[in-house]
Amino acid sequence: AKADGRSVYRFFESQMDSEARERRLLEVELRDAIKNNELVLYYQPLVSAEDARPTGFEALVRWNHPIRGLVAPAEFIPIAEQSNLIVDIGDWTIEQACLAAVNWPEHLTVAVNLSAKHFRRSDISVVVKRALAMSGLAAPRLEIEITEGLLMENPEAVVEKLGEIRALGVTIAMDDFGTGYSSLSYLLKFPFDKIKIDRSFVDASSDDEVARDILKAIASLGKTLKLKITAEGVETQAQAEFLSGIACHQLQGFYFARPLDHIDLPHYLLTHVLP
Ligand code: C2E
Ligand code: CA
Ligand code: CA
Ligand code: CA
């Protein structure tokens, strides 16, 4: 029995070793991915809840790995968050997104996901300003989505930086609203323009009346606080109808469109935006 225990232990130990090794390897590779041009942005449409016409796109990063193929952000963003690579990825994403959006019809916006880590550095507003200047994109066409993790570590500094970015005319959205421990106190503390209701509520709304009531409550909270409301993860017509019925402003999800690559995006613009 003793020997068995030891071998089970050794099994876990080597399992952990190989996971740690895998992470380290990914981290090393990720370091080169940006300069090797392996990161790509996909763009998922956001549509008006009123008429389903596109209002803009959210930039979603993918890693086009030479051997592993297309790696989803869930697999490398957490690794990037642990090192400071997430900040480099964020800088790159803002620039690329602004450069892309400046070629779209003028009423369309572009949203970029930034890690809370980005707000630990002092010059975040400089990065945003530089990307706007370099691309020529008008500030109101840029949105920044942030999830609540880590923002509370130094709220005063974050509030100041958010203020600087908003002063440029950029929109700030609280992403994945409702999933954190303290979504409401975040609304109290930080100056958001917009909230994006997490996909989990939309998903549950199909067969759960409580989820529908929560969505209604969030929508009316948004109205009171004069915040724009976006719902993400809309997959069915019934969800879309319910959400526009409770006065959400924007919808996003596979029901309307998936994240689009550089081939599908121009086609989408031609078929959904131009005429
Ligand atoms: P998120 O910001 O909440 O992005 C929405 C995610 O839901 C995207 O997954 C999108 O493809 C997916 N999605 C959209 N509509 C639907 C739907 O109707 N049904 C379902 N099942 N899924 C839908 P993706 O692209 O894999 O991104 C996952 C997460 O990775 C993002 O969640 C975001 O937190 C993070 N992420 C993505 N790109 C970036 C980035 O450039 N920087 C940072 N810091 N994080 C990023
Ligand atoms: Ca997002
Ligand atoms: Ca989201
Ligand atoms: Ca989400």
TrEMBL record:
Superkingdom per UniProt: Bacteria
Q: Which residues form the EAL domain?
A: 23-273
Organism whose genome encodes this protein? Devosia ginsengisoli
Q: Give start-end of the signal peptide.
A: none
Q: What is this protein called?
A: EAL domain-containing protein
